[in-house]
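Worked example 2:
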Amino acid sequence: MRRAASVLVVAALLLAGCSDPPKSKLDRSGAVPRGASYVALGDSYAAGPRLGPSSGAVGCEQTQGNYPHRLAERLGLDLTDVTCGGATTADLAGSQTPPNGEPVPPQLDALGADTDLVTIGIGGNDGKVFAELMTTCVGKAVEDRAGAPCTAEGAPFRVKAERHLAKLPGRMADVLAAIAERAPKARIVVVGYPAAFPESGTCALLPLARGDYPFARDYISRVNDALAAAADQAGATYVDVWAATDGHDICATDPWIAGLIPAQPALEYHPYAQEQTVVTDLLVAELA
């Protein structure tokens, strides 16, 4: 009897080993059907400032020309867009007060048990690093055009940026867990940032000091690395916008990101319509 029981246990273990491993609750690889409930979360690179008629809360700079609206139109989705310029990972669970606007509810409040799809583009604003790069660092460049006044080893801005980069993977992991808890059946797509800064060279439309250019490009690349790692850990989908936009930075011959003086409708240092079209195409390819 004891030997027979042992044989049964071994057989059960072998059968268990042959079965497929359980999939993550966030593993959604199928197409998103028309009419699906879609919630868009994120900051200004998702909100699409000045790319069309306003579609969000006052001060959020959200427009109908952003990729959430384009994606919803192309796939026939029921969109709830709560993207807001200046948003950080902390603003997803807490109220945000955009410039010249009233407090807006936490973005995560838009999620529910019936949410089918969530896109999220966030992280670059944590610690106001990107804002300081394009304001404080631009100001310091006036006094030291050839140096690296903002990003030299030990410079306060660089120390701050490194600190927030180190915290970002954990913050994004918490964000994705919170999304999964509030929208348990939703497919979650993390949208990366474009290659806004050139691989080499400088230009008047991006008035940083020459030595600060490399760190600016590296900063966005490392933010994307953190987003991709968090998405992979959570079983969410990561969409690589960097690879699709590299070579169309602010200083490029054919820029998809506006510089200090936009050449077409866009907020300075933010995407043109072409970049949002590219992001939409990437999402359609992933979801259709």
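Residues 156-182 form the longest helix (27 residues). Residues 31-283 form a domain with the Rossmann fold fold (CATH 3.40.50.1110).
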